[in-house]
Amino acid sequence: MQTDYMERELPQIVTLMLKACVLLALVPFICNSQANSEQLDKPVSREIANKENPGFISIDCGSIIDYLQEDTGIWYKTDKGFVETGENHVTSSIINLNYLYFGKQLTTLRCFPEGDRNCYTLKPKEGKNKKYMIRAFFSYGNYDGKNQTQSFELYLGVNLWKKINFTNTDHYTFTEIIHTPSTDTINVCLVKTGPIIPCISSLELRLLNNSIYQNHQMISTNDPEPLLESQARIDVGPSPCLANATSDSDAPPILNAFEIYKLMTQLDSPTSPQDVGAIMDIKSSYQVYKLNWQGDPCLPTQYRWEGLVCKGDTIPRITSLNLSSSKLTGKINISFSYLTELEFLDLSYNELEGPLPEFLAHLPNLKVLNLTGNKLSSPIPKDLKQKADNKTLELSVAGNPDLCMTGSCKKKNIVVPLVASFSALFLIILIISLGFRIFKRQKALYIHVVPPARFNSKKRGSLKSKHHAFSYNEILNITDNFKTIIGEGGFGKVYIGILQDHTQVAVKMLSTSSKQGYKEFQSEVQLLMIVHHRNLVSLIGYCDEGEIKALIYEYMTNGNLQQYLLVENSNIINWTKRLKIAVDAAHGLDYLHNGCKPPIIHRDLKSSNILLDENLHAKIADFGLSRAFGNDNDSHISTRPAGTFGYVDPQFQRTGNTNKKNDIYSFGIILFELITGKKALIKAPDETIHILQWVIPLIKGGDIQNIIDARLQGEFNINSAWKVVEVAMSCISQIAAERPDINQILVELKECLSLEIVQRNSGSARDIIELTTLSTGPEITPSAR
């Protein structure tokens, strides 16, 4: 049947069929095209269903358990293993979704508030070049109480499958497609096209019988893998048909059912299977988690994976891969050798170790190879060094102390005289003994700071302390089954909760898939159990049940400073309140740097980590990257990236040298955000610029009116404003030694606040009292010093 014929005759065919039949029943659910129709209504035992249905993948999106659908005998699985992102929701109980066969699947949802493209990956056991029907169900059920109209796009691989549009009154919609994949994996992706969050209820794959669906012969097309989107499936079996029987027939015409499909043409080819297999293996081996590393790596171009550049008009190939500062560990994986079109490869500032592999020299198109800042060892391979010497390859290997540059490395002598061995052993014992004595001495000195009861756990990493221990069931009750998300980071999600005494709290759940998040989680626990200050967010309790770990904090009503400074926010913070926020944050940082022994460096100061309570009092949060150092002047060379781009001290980026001055630089960027009302990274029409690139020329020009947030409409004291600008400039000095200590910054910020309150004569009695309180120094609990 030709495509143009279908488009021309389809309306007439449908009309004739509808007229010819007394009763037509739309059947959106067909269990298996290979199954005998007589078997469809027969119950299937749980024993058989538990073995799964051959050729079936059935996912109840948003379900938290696998289960048997009794009416159909189909075994449904959860999302686990099929999708890496999203969150589970349940439809409103007042929405009636009690449909036979598929109603249960409609009541749970997997929604994707983050990222533009989120993908399910299906890997049927039967593999590629088989014919499959893929069916997706979508419901909304007013799960968020917003009564929204759903609108987003559904992609099959790199091609648009269908635009999903339905209202809350429609309750649900579904779509089916017949697909013959050329690879062993099939990607089904939900793409966000506006403010509406995409959600899916069910995703199903069914192996089709070639004897029934001979689409290659049915349709005249040069496309070797046509896509057929189902338009209708009509069951006319229950009713007699009224169709013109011929004179040669002794029986009436019989029509059991018919299906109508739409041919999808002008399809794009996916990325080269060789490149896809290589990059997926790299992602899996190094456990790379980047939000948009889903679906096809190169297409559609607007959803191309972060760090990739692809070329090719017909079949895209990966030509550039940037995995700098991606926390890669272990050896350089051989999968890189399959990316044969690579021209640029950046693996710098990771923790890669072992010898530099020979196969990197045999990538035929490689022009730039950056391996700076790893732990690689042994000589550089001869062919690789030769390419570098011939200038056909730009090779960067600095910062690998054990990597031999000359090609004639001397092997270490493993034969050591016996006397030297005994001397070394004696020296080790002596060092351990002295270390143990010093440890005991330090511990004795530290006991007056932290009560011994806080360290009485026998289990390493345990959260046992005087803080309240919550069970997982209590966490579920507190958060109303994780109903409302208020934040998310590398550790996992943060939910709002309510304790039995009606106190609001923030509950941070550790994601089981986040290795680095677990380290940050432990660091935050250990720190918050020993430090207490009115300008640091307080820890209320914890949950520690196997892999389930959570922290419960005081809830900060007004969110974070970055949210409050956004242009879209109608609640504009006046100049006086901005200065108070700066003073509060400086108090918190002063306590960490100078009130704690040993000093603590936050290492991730940014406006989103400054939280605000109902009175806009500021508290520093998120101590997952914080570290304690031996003394006030101590520094440390860090091999692991820390901080957030835009706030990170350039000196730390160059040298890895970690000290208190890194925090001072970040604090200076926060001051500039308070001053200007702009983000650390300002989005311009064609580029993103750093706030310093924008503000420093204005400062040099003496243009204070255009520096201060325009929304304040000139309501600020000029002397106060200039002084804060000067403080901020001193914080971001390129020479770290010239940056002031936070206690000096605190004194100057208080003077700025004094100028604003007193000189403008706008301060209420409460303001003057608060200013006096601020001048007396930080409030510290006895156990913290």
TrEMBL record:
<protein>
    <recommendedName>
        <fullName>non-specific serine/threonine protein kinase</fullName>
        <ecNumber>2.7.11.1</ecNumber>
    </recommendedName>
</protein>
<dbReference type="Pfam" id="PF12819">
    <property type="entry name" value="Malectin_like"/>
</dbReference>
<dbReference type="Pfam" id="PF13855">
    <property type="entry name" value="LRR_8"/>
</dbReference>
<dbReference type="GO" id="GO:0004674">
    <property type="term" value="F:protein serine/threonine kinase activity"/>
</dbReference>
<dbReference type="InterPro" id="IPR024788">
    <property type="entry name" value="Malectin-like_Carb-bd_dom"/>
</dbReference>
<keyword id="KW-0472">Membrane</keyword>
<keyword id="KW-0723">Serine/threonine-protein kinase</keyword>
<dbReference type="GO" id="GO:0016020">
    <property type="term" value="C:membrane"/>
</dbReference>
<keyword id="KW-0675">Receptor</keyword>
<feature type="transmembrane region" description="Helical">
    <location>
        <begin position="414"/>
        <end position="436"/>
    </location>
</feature>
<keyword id="KW-0812">Transmembrane</keyword>
<dbReference type="InterPro" id="IPR011009">
    <property type="entry name" value="Kinase-like_dom_sf"/>
</dbReference>
<keyword id="KW-0418">Kinase</keyword>
<dbReference type="InterPro" id="IPR001611">
    <property type="entry name" value="Leu-rich_rpt"/>
</dbReference>
<dbReference type="InterPro" id="IPR001245">
    <property type="entry name" value="Ser-Thr/Tyr_kinase_cat_dom"/>
</dbReference>
<dbReference type="Pfam" id="PF07714">
    <property type="entry name" value="PK_Tyr_Ser-Thr"/>
</dbReference>
<keyword id="KW-0677">Repeat</keyword>
<keyword id="KW-1133">Transmembrane helix</keyword>
<keyword id="KW-0597">Phosphoprotein</keyword>
<keyword id="KW-0808">Transferase</keyword>
<dbReference type="InterPro" id="IPR000719">
    <property type="entry name" value="Prot_kinase_dom"/>
</dbReference>
<feature type="domain" description="Protein kinase">
    <location>
        <begin position="480"/>
        <end position="753"/>
    </location>
</feature>
<dbReference type="InterPro" id="IPR032675">
    <property type="entry name" value="LRR_dom_sf"/>
</dbReference>
<keyword id="KW-0732">Signal</keyword>
<keyword id="KW-0067">ATP-binding</keyword>
<dbReference type="GO" id="GO:0005524">
    <property type="term" value="F:ATP binding"/>
</dbReference>
<dbReference type="InterPro" id="IPR017441">
    <property type="entry name" value="Protein_kinase_ATP_BS"/>
</dbReference>
<keyword id="KW-0433">Leucine-rich repeat</keyword>
<keyword id="KW-0547">Nucleotide-binding</keyword>
<feature type="binding site">
    <location>
        <position position="508"/>
    </location>
    <ligand>
        <name>ATP</name>
    </ligand>
</feature>
<dbReference type="InterPro" id="IPR008271">
    <property type="entry name" value="Ser/Thr_kinase_AS"/>
</dbReference>
